[in-house]
Amino acid sequence: MAYVSAGRAADAARGVPVGAGGTGGSPESPGAGGRTGRAGRLVAANVIALGAVSMITDVSSEMVTAVLPLYLVAGLGLSPLAFGFLDGLYGGVTALVRLLGGHAADRWRRRKLVAGIGYGLSAITKPALLVAGTVPVIGAVLAADRTGKGLRTAPRDALISLSSPAGEQGRAFGVHRAMDTAGALLGPLVAFGILALAAQGYDAVFMVSTCVAAFGVLVLVLFVRDRRERDETPPDGGGTEPPAGETDRPSLRVTLQALRLPGFARICVCAPLLGVATLSDSFVYLLLQRRVDLPAHFFPLLPVGTAAAFLLLAVPLGLVSDRIGRLRVFLAGHAGLLVVYGLLLSPLGGAVLVTVALALHGAFYAATDGVLMALAGPLLPENVRAGALAVLQTGQATARLACSVGFGAAWTWWGPRNALLLAATALVLAAAAAAPMRPETRNP
């Protein structure tokens, strides 16, 4: 409730009467996306609806993600290098389709439709995991699932950005990521419960995941509003004039012209630079499991710690980013990740190591995931916002793919400790290079 009070205080400071529609515009404003009840005073109703879809979908996806690393490494006996390749594929294949999804959403002006196709594709691939018993087949299924994620991410984030005032993007993305993370918190718990009831019950996990994913698509169809009424400069003067030659249905060339905007261009360098040194969740959890010798049936609970911290901190850090600067919060999140690396290298062990590392891991996501989109969104014209955000996300996903493959190779050749030392060194150098870039400077 503290963040609701903060929103009311901000309204009062701007002379907006409390109870008169909240922050970010009137209930009739297209930019507000409609407001309902207590949650409507915090963010647009469209953000809440998108958050609900993400929450349900994350319950489904995180059920699979929670059991997958142990299933592949302990169950199928993959080496760290082979797992690094599959893990990089799982996270990085989205880079191949993010541009397609973002550009199609802008070109067709059907952001909800493109996002829905992505959610639907991920839902229909889940049953294939029931019969995927070999590494190549599992890789193909994971690639199809991540293709769905790649298609939906940029249109979804563009809808959130377009439904929120420029000065409150951190708040809107914080609320969405908190709801999204509630699903990430529940998914591993559901998987843990299923495995506790049925030993080696991976088939049951995959089947329940399929049903939950289908429900998420239904919620999207019924409750999310598209933004197709008009193309306008973002509120509060935070955006830019469209690039020369831009039309209502921009070409890919026009979308890529966003890279000429100095502020956005700096973000597109900063995020991938840090992404090259960002270990995937799976490697963090495998390192923790090895350090404390965690029993296999407790492994799905490790993501719960990350998700709990993310859930608690997403909205507060989103609000903080709106006040003190989104770049500062983004870099602070990576400093927290560096501490996680240090803890994994330290002599600490047991519950203390697990608790502190997972809390900081969740804080890292709270300070970076939605904050990056909030940093970039207001700098972009509405017509190309989904496509331009996809450019940014593609660069970051590609960098993290390289990190997963590189870390898996370093672990195989030099051992986990030396590989982690290399990752920590790379993160320090990347943060030092990114800090002076000042991407929050507004484009002319």
TrEMBL record:
Keyword Transmembrane: yes
Protein's cellular compartments: Cell membrane
Topology class, membrane: Multi-pass membrane protein
Residues covered by the Major facilitator superfamily (MFS) profile domain: 46-442
Gene3D superfamilies tied to this protein: MFS general substrate transporter like domains
Positions of transmembrane segments: 181-199, 205-224, 263-286, 298-320, 420-437
Swiss-Prot/TrEMBL keywords: Membrane, Transmembrane, Transmembrane helix
tRNA processing found in the keyword field: no
Residue ranges, annotated region (Disordered): 17-37, 230-249
Taxonomy, superkingdom: Bacteria
Compositionally biased intervals (Gly residues): 18-37
Protein name from the UniProt record: MFS transporter
